[in-house]
Amino acid sequence: MEKEVWRYIDSGYGSPSFNMALDEALLDWHSAGKIPPVIRFYGWNPATLSVGYFQKVEKEINMEAVKIHGLGFVRRPTGGRGVLHEHELTYSVIVSEEHPEMPKTVTEAYRVISEGILKGFHNLGLEAYFAVPKTAEERNALKNPRSAVCFDAPSWYELVVEGRKVAGSAQTRQKGVILQHGAILLDLDEDKLFSLFNYPSERVKERMQKAFKSKAVAINDISSRKIEMDEAKIAFREGFAEGLNIELEPYTLTKDEMDYVIDLAKSKYESDEWNFKR
């Protein structure tokens, strides 16, 4: 039986606004039937703090620290918490809610899509597995996150190695399409990450950062050898192809498509109205 062909886009390092605009454009084009499902890999230039759609920037984010570190800043169209995009491979998956392989619930769709990420970790020789909160206490903790930091705790079906989270994902459903994107950490600067959020006191910040070490980890902190971006891309590209049982066909945006994305980036994702609306 022939495998379904999805598009594969490696858009390289983009600005925060471009990265979010391209994800939105791909969702729109797939919704309109113009393109098949897509797997996209990308990086960030400059390194960027992205916040979830519902986060309150003034309350939770230390914008002064964002400026001091020379970071970009953008609000994602997806939920979840703050993510420092620096030494990571970022991915997005765009696929119809009606796709025969996609479960109806958000949690189960996570599991199916994340199968590709799981296989990618295995390709790098890492024993990753899905996090499944077992106790009522763990499940309640997911509903009431104490921290604005995304990697503070694994959600349902997020990827963990040796009990610590190695990839964080967020999902939105719009116009009949699932957009799931997430960060696969190669390296992590914890001090920088924790400087970007507001805390009630220095003591609370220290306690949270200490707890964080036991909950999240970057690939190169647990791998027996250093894994570079190019190797990670190959591993996760093959992982998605195997995990979703698809064929990936490389695609480059046309000039018209690129112009559309650049316009959307400027008009929406570079606007204070979007980025600071909460």
What does this structure look like?
It is built from 11 helices and 12 strands. It is of the alpha/beta class and 278 residues long. The chain has a single domain, classed as BirA Bifunctional Protein, domain 2, CATH 3.30.930.10. The strands form 3 sheets. The protein has a 6-stranded mixed β-sheet with strand order 10-11-6-2-1-12, with helices on both faces. It has a 3-stranded mixed β-sheet with strand order 4-3-5, with helices on one face. The radius of gyration is 18 Å and the shape is globular. The protein starts with a strand and ends with a helix. The model has no long low-confidence stretch (mean pLDDT 92).
Radius of gyration: 18 Å
CATH architectural type: 2-Layer Sandwich
Strand content: 15-25%
Whole-number mean pLDDT: 92
Tally of structural domains:
1
Indicate the low-confidence ranges by residue numbers. Answer: none
Termini separation comes to 49 Å
Protein name: Octanoyltransferase LipM
InterPro entries: aa-tRNA-synth_II/BPL/LPL, BPL_LPL_catalytic, LipM, Octanoyltrans_LipM/LipL
Domain BPL/LPL catalytic: 33-248
Site (Lowers pKa of active site Cys): 165
Helices and strands in order:
Elements (H helix, E strand, L loop, with lengths): L3 E11 L1 H16 L6 E7 L3 E4 L5 H4 L2 H6 L3 E4 L7 E3 L2 E9 L9 H18 L4 E3 L5 H8 L15 E3 L2 E2 L1 E8 L2 E9 L4 H6 L6 H12 L5 H4 L6 H15 L2 E5 L4 H15 L2 H4 L3
Parallel strand pairs: 1-2, 1-12, 3-4
Antiparallel strand pairs: 2-6, 3-5, 6-11, 7-8, 8-9, 10-11
